[in-house]
Amino acid sequence: MGKPKIATVSLAGCFGCHMSMLDIDERIFDLVDIVDFDKSPINDIKEFSDRCLVGLIEGGCSTEENVHVLQTFRRNCDILVSVGACAITGGIPALRNGIPISECLDEAFRNGPTVYNPDGIIPCDKEIPLCLDKVYPCQQVVKIDYFLPGCPPSGDTIWEGLVALLNGKPLGFPYELIKYD
Ligand code: SF4
């Protein structure tokens, strides 16, 4: 039997959680001994090549494309983990949730202090992902199995969580890994 596979993605996030994944430092050598990476920005594999044991999700859903990608992860991963505040609550991108989407687009493309747009046209090419009315946490779009809180969760927290999941153990963290003071 081959090694279990893991996949990762950044939806509406800043890639800080992915940076934290790399903060497991030299343990990444232990990790690649026991798993294969499938679709992930870490290896730049764009599409799933096989079913994955674990999918790590950074960021919430701000666009239609985010929803589509998240649903693809749900279909292709046995265990889905929301990693970080943006995936769990929407995070910083969700600051727009109290403002109508039309006002957000006006500010971004028409009225913002650094905007030059004499035609006043808001970009609407079909290649551009359609913005949702607000930013949704991942668990409001698909079933999420586990949550790793933090902005970002530390490399140690991600490591402990992954090792537990890969060994079929319940997730449990010492206080030091989930305190934020
Ligand atoms: S939780 Fe923090 S580090 Fe992770 S994507 Fe959001 S803002 Fe970036």
Quick check: average pLDDT? 95
Main β-sheet description = 5 strands, parallel
Element-by-element helix/strand order: EHHEEEHEHHEEH
Structural class: alpha/beta
Gap from first CA to last CA: 43 Å
Q: Helix share of residues?
A: 25-40%
**Uncertain ranges:** none
Number of strands: 7
Annotation field: number of helices: 6
What percentage of amino acids are in beta strands? Answer: 15-25%
Shape, principal axes of CA atoms: elongated
- Radius of gyration, in Å, reads 18 Å
Bound small molecules, by name, code or SMILES, are: iron/sulfur cluster
The neighbouring-strand order within the major sheet is: 2-1-3-5-7
Task: Write up what this structure looks like.
The chain has 181 residues and is an alpha/beta fold. It starts with a strand and ends in a 15-residue tail after the last helix. The radius of gyration is 18 Å and the shape is elongated. It has a 5-stranded parallel sheet, with helices on both faces. Strands 4-6 form a two-stranded antiparallel sheet. The longest helix is centred in the middle third of the chain and has 13 residues, at 64-76. The mean pLDDT is 95. It has 6 helices and 7 strands; from the N terminus they run E-H-H-E-E-E-H-E-H-H-E-E-H. The structure holds iron/sulfur cluster. Iron/sulfur cluster is lined by residues 13-14, 16-17, 58-59, 84-86, 91-92, 151-152.
